[in-house]
Amino acid sequence: MKFYDVDQDGNISYEEFIRGLKEPLNERRKALVQKVFRNMDKDHSGKITVKDIAGIYDVSQNQDFITGKKTRDEILSDFLSGFEGVRGNSDGVITWEEFEDYYSDFSLSIPDDLYFTRMMESVWCINEDAESEVSKQHVRHLMSLLR
Question: CATH for 25-111, among 3.40.50.410, 1.10.238.10, 3.30.870.10, 1.10.10.350?
């Protein structure tokens, strides 16, 4: 009951049940998620804070910032809180476990590893290991299309 009842309300919701049954991230997906986490953790503390993302997240086009409804730090905190997930402690600091849990939940909706990889690469401006066989296959495929 404790494992499935994440919000500790004495009930197991459908969402809690499904999350309890999920498979962990496979090695390929986990490596990408770790790469993103390491890139965001600028001070290498093992945690992502507002200070870590202040230089990489531009809030200047955020409507709440433009109208003065929220400060820069409030917007950055809101962004980070999205990664807390249901098992997070809502402290505004993202641990590796919280980040992995978030992407493990997200991964449930993406059955294809290649799509997950391309999505992570485009969203986070990273590249999967350029020396991996998958990347080499992709390059060969693109080259054949060009020919």
Answer: 1.10.238.10
